[in-house]
């Protein structure tokens, strides 16, 4: 389905599309997951606004993520691999990372409404 804000999306336990990002000078393709329990739930205005905010401030957000990750771990550039930009129904969003040092539990870098790092288990 083509969406005005997210582009080409599909529904599989939430709406999904892909997005290229650059982090620590490396290019990654991450899944953008727009939370929805049922296809009929659609996409909220808060989710649209959150993604527009992310796109309009992407360079600032990536710099913030890099700073938070470096504060969290000296080996952040090698340790964390971005996988999913998760946008909640209320517009809160975080970039989820796999953790090479702890494959069973990644981390979430929360960007809105607050900038912080937490385990994915705590975030989800």
Question: Can you put this structure into words, describing what you see?
Answer:
With 124 residues, the chain is α+β, with helices and mostly antiparallel strands. 28% of the residues lie in helices and 40% in strands. It has 4 helices and 9 strands. The chain has helices at 45-56, 58-72, 76-79, 120-123; strands spanning 2-3, 7-8, 10-11, 15-23, 26-34, 80-87, 93-99, 107-112, 116-119. A hairpin with a 7-residue loop joins strand 7 (93-99) and strand 8. It is globular and about 45 Å long.
Topology:
Layout: E1 2-3, E2 7-8, E3 10-11, E4 15-23, E5 26-34, H1 45-56, H2 58-72, H3 76-79, E6 80-87, E7 93-99, E8 107-112, E9 116-119, H4 120-123
Parallel strand pairs: 5-6
Antiparallel strand pairs: 1-2, 3-4, 4-5, 6-7, 7-8, 8-9
Short description:
28% of the residues lie in helices and 40% in strands. It has four helices and nine strands.
């Amino acid at each position: 389905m083509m969406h005005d804000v997210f582009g080409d999306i599909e529904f599989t336990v939430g709406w999904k599309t892909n997005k290229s990002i650059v982090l620590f000078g490396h290019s990654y393709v991450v899944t953008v997951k727009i939370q929805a329990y049922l296809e009929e739930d659609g996409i909220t205005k808060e989710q649209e606004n959150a993604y527009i905010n992310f796109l309009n401030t992407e360079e600032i957000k990536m710099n913030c993520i890099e700073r938070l990750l470096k504060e969290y771990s000296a080996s952040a550039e090698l340790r964390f691999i971005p996988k999913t930009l998760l946008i909640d129904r209320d517009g809160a969003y975080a970039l989820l990372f796999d953790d090479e040092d702890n494959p069973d539990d990644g981390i979430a870098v929360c960007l809105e409404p607050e900038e912080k790092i937490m385990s994915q288990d705590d975030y989800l």
